[in-house]
Amino acid sequence: MFGTPALVGITRGLAEFRAGRPVEIADGSGSLVALPVEGLSAERLAAFKQLCAPALPRLVVTARRALALGIVTPAPVTIQLAADLDADCIVELVANAEGGGPFGADPAGAAAGAAIELAKLAQVLPAVLVAEVTAAIAMLDPPIVRVAADAIGRFHGDRVQSLAISGEAEVPLNSGVRTRFVVFRDAVGESPVAVIIGTPDLSLPTPVRLHSACLTGDAFGSRRCDCGDQLKSALKRLAGMGGGIILYLAQEGRGLGLSNKMRAYQLQDAGLDTVDANTTLGFDDDERRYGIAARMLEKLGCTRVVLLTNNPAKLDGLAHAGIEIAGRVPLETPINADNRRYLTAKAARSGHRLDHLIASLANP
């Protein structure tokens, strides 16, 4: 009635990680207790060490972060930490451009790797402290939340299937465009929104924009990105095309979350480009998936689309999820001194089709 045990366990595990509390991750060969590095303090580190005694906790990082630490590996690794390493040093170890080293590392097992994936789902830093489950941990009150490692791997699909429409209403905009907001809800309580402009004929290929939420750009007009300009342009273009759909998705910072997006900005200010900033933090360049977007379109009765995008990955992601791609419309937005480097990295390193940027670079 309230969801499968696996799905309930993951949603509880996400809440615990976001609150900075430990979670037990269980796989077929045993269990580990994992504490997110996000929000680590001296008090939390001391309490976790006490629960793990006599063993010391180990640090688990992604292959991307391991490379930033000088460790070449195809998968997450565990690093044995010195007993006197404090909480601030551990946070610096997983978030700074220069991580120090050298470090000895061992391959992370399935449970430790699943803990990293849970951290990504929670949009916290993709790094955890782990230890074997001790008698003290098993006797905690309230008891520690237990999550199955294999269920974490299935979660994206379960989350897509959980999606349902929770409310809708007409919303006229200041621009004069009349829209209908259709709000969805998924298993973890997130609320992606379909903004329907005009009255699109869904029996024909429908103009659609997949827009990742960007608080800085959409709401405050940040000049560091092109998100706000793309959203305004998409609204205008769709109105001019006789109607269409904007899917407003909870994918801040290409799926990293707002806090990690700010961390990536700090690394960019220190000299890294947008791609290297994300991977230095331990993420992939783009952590977004498009199953939720495809399911939203299916719920609306839209299965053939003309996508307003410069990003070929969105075309591939929707097509892989079962949506027919009938065409692509580019979105050219203003280039300024603050976003030129960001846009150049997207074009050169992430494959975005920014022909107007290339033209401007060829003719400065």
What attributes does this structure have?
16 helices, alpha/beta, 364 residues, seven-stranded mixed sheet, 14 strands, globular, DHBP synthase
CATH fold node name of the largest domain: Rossmann fold
The total tally of domains equals 2
Poorly predicted runs: none
What structural category characterises the helix and strand content? alpha/beta
Name the average pLDDT.
92
- DSSP summary: helix tally: 16
Specify the biggest β-sheet. Answer: 7 strands, mixed
Please bin the fraction of helical residues: 40-55%
Corresponding CATH superfamily of the largest domain: GTP cyclohydrolase II
Spell out the helices and strands N to C.
HEEHEHEHEHEHEHEEEEHHEHHHHEHEHH
Radius of gyration: 22 Å
* Shape by Cα distribution: globular
| Second rung of CATH, namely the architecture of the largest domain | 3-Layer(aba) Sandwich
**CATH class division of the largest domain:** Alpha Beta
Terminal Cα span: 62 Å
State which percent range the strand residues make up.
15-25%
Describe the structure.
The protein is built from 16 helices and 14 strands. With 364 residues, the protein is α/β, with parallel strands linked by helices. It has 2 domains: 5-157, Alpha-Beta Complex (DHBP synthase); 164-251 and 288-362, GTP cyclohydrolase II (Rossmann fold, 3-Layer(aba) Sandwich). A hairpin with a 7-residue loop joins β9 and β10. α5 packs parallel to α7 (149-162) and α11 (258-269) packs across α12 (274-280). 43% of the residues are buried.
